[in-house]
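Exam prep: given the inputs below (a chain plus iron/sulfur cluster), describe the expected output before reading on.
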Amino acid sequence: MAISRRNFLKCAAFTAGGAVLADNPFVKATAKAAMKKDVKYIPSYCEMCFWRCGLVAKVEGGKVVKLEGNPLHPQSRGRLCARGQAGIGLLYDKDRLQTPLIRTGERGDGKYRKASWDEAYSYIAEKLTGIKKKYGPESVALFAHGNGGAYMGNFLEAFGSPNHSHPSYAQCLGAREVAFTLTYGQGPASTAERVDMANSRVIALFGSHMGENMHNSHNQDFVDGLANGAKLIVVDPRYSTAAGKASMWLPIKPGTDLALILAWINIVIQEKWYDREYLEKYATGFDELKEAVKGYTPEWDAKETDLPKQDIIEAIRELGRYKPNVVVHPGRHYSWYGDDTQRGRGLAILNALLGTWGRKGGLWLPPKVNLTKMKETVKYPKPKRESLGFGDYPFASAGITTEVRRATIEGTPYPIKAWFVIGTNLMKTMPVPGKTLEAIKNLDLLVNIDLMPTDMVMMSDVILPSTSYLERHDSLAIVTQKNAGVAIRQPVANPWKNVKPAWLIAKELCNKMGLKKYVEYKTLDEQMRQQAKLWKIDYKKLETTGYIPIPDSYHPYITEKNQPVFATDSKKIELYSEALDEEDMDPVPKYTRHKVPPAGMFRLLYGRSPVHTFSRSMNNKWLYELKSENEVWLSANVARRLGIENGEKVSLVNEKGLKSNVGRVKVTERIREDCVYVIHGFGSTSKRMTLTYGRGIDDAQMMSHYATDPISGTNGMRVNFVKIVKES
Ligand code: SF4
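Solution:
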């Protein structure tokens, strides 16, 4: 049977890489003789998402013809997901930015002229000098996602601004990090979540769309766990792909997750399912917790969550029976309802009661990594004004994008007049895109560093085209699965057209601005070699294998000799948080009811496709072929009442009357009646994204407001309601 590219991609999403280890680790010794002279196998690591799987590129006559998983790398284990394999589609995308561009028309009208790099740098330097003189260097802000953000962050520091901000914090996992840090003294992930699903007896997921959010080794662990007989409990208003594998699906009323978590905590305590010995040794605040949650009974919870009382009880008993070799997954995307840190605290406490932290099948302990730090050779100037990205949120641990945006609009506590944006399509990432446009109007300079002409890029004054991950070096990466290791990113292809890597852009901008003394290296490769030497890593070997393990780093489980360290004030797991109490915040989470959709409207939920990463992969022709548009999931009962047929054209209208693009409806039994669901990232407004322009419904466009988490300052974005309008 002939295999079309479409079928190939579908099959390839989870097939083992073909490379077999020999001297050259990726080519069979027997195959070497037959190999064409101009074929090379070069290891590196992927950036089609942030998971950083090791890859091996097959390069024929200078052209990348195949990407496969590096079998030596623990985050890929010989496999890449469909996006990872489709990296070639990004590398050779005809719509890619080719050369620096300077705006000639109005912002957003798409008129640009080509410029040399020097011209573009001079333009930026002149504007920045003016802004610095008039408003101070702190009036420049950075929005960053991905590796390149670190280099641009260095540029910002050299310039004298502390205003870095990260959508990965405010619009994604910030609240989780704050919640787990308050409880355990650290988060549950070091890039990859340390969830030991492969060895779990019971896995509980709260809205974690395993298999839809495709994080390679994490999904491999999930599938291994299920194959090993783990029971799966899925709490989700939608019958997700993961729910399809579950022994128990709890279709919870949206917005009531914390009610269920608190009721489970109460049941664990009342029915004595907790790990007494573990808590006595490692935790504080049990009595206060017991008192605080006693009102959250199963009867109360059943009314609140719209779940059968018996299911609520049976699910948590199942976790209790098999503790401590169970896990309530900490989740990743956290920006839901504005009480997200407290929801995270609830999940962290539940795991503590069941004794999962540092236990097989629970949350493994971070590997031990004793690598010497490079000496800091440059001292950046101390900014005169504090970062405004943390707002008034006492536990904010990274710059909040929406705070920078607010300051740009309001000019307080001081004005922001320039934005550098790298690797993030803010028009799709931040809620209330109208506010982003309002902020942009106040800017004297907007620079985007990116590969593709996204909606955000097309708002820029200056566009600086960057290399893809397949064309550049990036600082050596420390990989932390149960074992730790060092991975290399190195070019597998020559940079296309007139593009540059972010490290070089940052360096050249420093040079142009007279900030040369802050540049640490001639080339990044040179710095990586120094780093490897310091770490006693054989750089030549690393270039050949892509990954080198760090010896003696494997210590995932608690033993007499391997004790966990909790960097909280009490040096224990804090079930009751003194730190929150001191800030007059609830030391034990409390449930507050969220607004429900008015009659005729539905809560807008959003999620992921396994073949896309936000909006950034939508124009990739291989991935576009697999998923070119999203659909609006609508309950079959509601569809019947509204007279809407499966596949019919519809649009969404939100509470403010904003109307979405026209899309198709998916009528299904797999979703509750009070919500609708779309995959995030569709609906590009950039005409230069020729494949994906105007395709599908943009969930961000429907977000006319968000709920701010008072602890972490992150954005709750599942608080918008929409109605469905039939389109002819
Ligand atoms: S999960 Fe997929 S896209 Fe993400 S790094 Fe791994 S292979 Fe690349």
